[in-house]
């Protein structure tokens, strides 16, 4: 069973909910060691005093912050711990918001939030169910691993999930980072129509298990091939950029290819088809039912003529 990486309480109003934080994700990257080329000699990183050239023990290292050119203020671990707000072990909820209001760029990493103990399951479930009924996400702050985080807590089925977030001043301004930000322009109507059709034809339910890290798979294949002395197959080149004059044709060809993969019908065609069939079926049914009503009316009229007239009492 996984170990929690943070324990504390979630506080909102006068209510405190003991919780434990667990990692929700894991990477599957290939981890490499460093060697000197042409040898089997490992490369090691050492902490070396740049003046004396001697190696320094980790316990003898302190942190320094530059305050002016070449001048530093030295801080040791105890001094940093003294000002760290994490001693309170509290995740304070400041507000509740609608999840649609949060730009995904603010999300950093996902964690599972579990009850602090068996005795606190009831208060944990109360917070989870109240947030689910209100359809809200809690926004708060916590200190974890020596860093303060903005955090979002959201209900997810039986669990609460915590998303660490970037602060607003950590989000870069694209206007300052990009060479040029494309301005909004009125697109060609035909190109836009075919582009939307292409998106429709490629639309499908979200199934994350259908996607794999194919690059890491190929790295593993490369390692196995070299270990066995086999030749390495070269991957395909990256596609070249589509020229503006070829855009419409490229879009149409893409729609046709997507249509073939889906059995010859685009998403727009398959959506419209059932409506037409239903309308035709209704019309046909109505046509068949009409003569039946007329025949029934004729039978009723004939029966009335044949029926003997009732005698009235004298």
From TrEMBL:
Domain (Ku) ranges: 53-183
Pfam families to which the protein is assigned, alphabetical: Ku
Comp. bias regions, Basic residues: 285-314
Keyword Nucleotide-binding in record: no
InterPro entries: DNA_bd_Ku70/Ku80, Prok_Ku, SPOC-like_C_dom_sf
Chain positions covered by the region annotation Disordered: 257-314
GO terms, molecular function: double-stranded DNA binding
BP terms from Gene Ontology: DNA recombination; double-strand break repair via nonhomologous end joining
Keywords: DNA damage, DNA recombination, DNA repair, DNA-binding
Family statement drawn from the similarity comment of this UniProt entry: Belongs to the prokaryotic Ku family.
Assembly: Homodimer. Interacts with LigD.
Main function: With LigD forms a non-homologous end joining (NHEJ) DNA repair enzyme, which repairs dsDNA breaks with reduced fidelity. Binds linear dsDNA with 5'- and 3'- overhangs but not closed circular dsDNA nor ssDNA. Recruits and stimulates the ligase activity of LigD.
Protein known as: Non-homologous end joining protein Ku
Organism, as annotated: Virgisporangium ochraceum
Gene assigned in the entry: ku
